[in-house]
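for the writeup, i need someone to sanity check this before i put it in the appendix. the sequnce is what the collaborator sent (i think, or maybe the updated version? ugh). structure was predicted straight from it, no edits. if anything looks off just tell me and ill rerun, i have time this weekend
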Amino acid sequence: MFDCIIVGAGPAGLTAAIFLTRFRRSVLLLDGGQSRASLIPRSHNHPAFPEGIRGAELLSRMRGQLGRLGIEPVPLSAKAVRRLPGGEWDVETEERVLRARHLILATGVRDRLPDLPDVVSHVRAGLIRQCPICDAFEVIDRTIAVLGHAECAASEALFLRGYSERVTLVPLGHELPPVWLRSLAEAGVRVEPRPVRRILPEPGRGVTLGYPDGHEERFDAVYAGLGVEPQTDLAESIGLSLLPDGRIGTDAHQRTDVPGLWAAGDVVTGLNQIAVAMAQAEIAATDLHNHLRLQEGRTLSQ
């Protein structure tokens, strides 16, 4: 019986594990091996790293910090979770069922990527980008393409317009609502009317887009504005209500509307940033610890 099982070993899950372990709580951290942060080629906007840091390196440092506390992530995925009549939690993995008094979901989101061979390797190399909030500063005055036809793609193109006058939205053959087209035109964002037939990343040169008429166009940076898929299967399986954006809603202490269940990181509604995920995890871990202190009679609060 653990005090807490944490599902997801990205920045949020690792932070929660570090805090709870330092609170001297028994913790099990499940690592399904799919942290979105591992795809980051180099983050330049994460505080305290002025030269930037690779996502894989950041995760490695955090795992090392946790390891010095005597805890290692367990390379298992949570297949199902169930709240028991007494309030405890069973977490089913591919090997065994684990039990804890409390649960933190840090399952994150998954980026929707273009239909492109080896697309994950292109993301890791920084040829296909995912987060203009993270790295638009690094493409100031460059030629930029945003792929996608949903509202998130149009919004990204407008956001990037503040960094370059050469921004093109490529709707991948889909038509855009007239009101979006007016906003894009007024902001100086070009909309490419031709569907893309070929996407060719060229290391050191950018990305070339090929059109049906044989014309090719090279961009210094290409963003996949295709949105994300919140990883909420476990949350939904226990009846947790989701917000309109498909993610988990929490209160100011990262508590969900299911007793004994906290959530933190990109799976929670809010800004998808490493620092935000870590802060949410700190809040969740501290609130969980204080919840246990109250049960133990080690606090004056009621």
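The radius of gyration is 21 Å. Helices lie at 11-22, 55-67, 119-124, 132-135, 151-160, 178-187, 233-237, 274-296.
thx in advance!!
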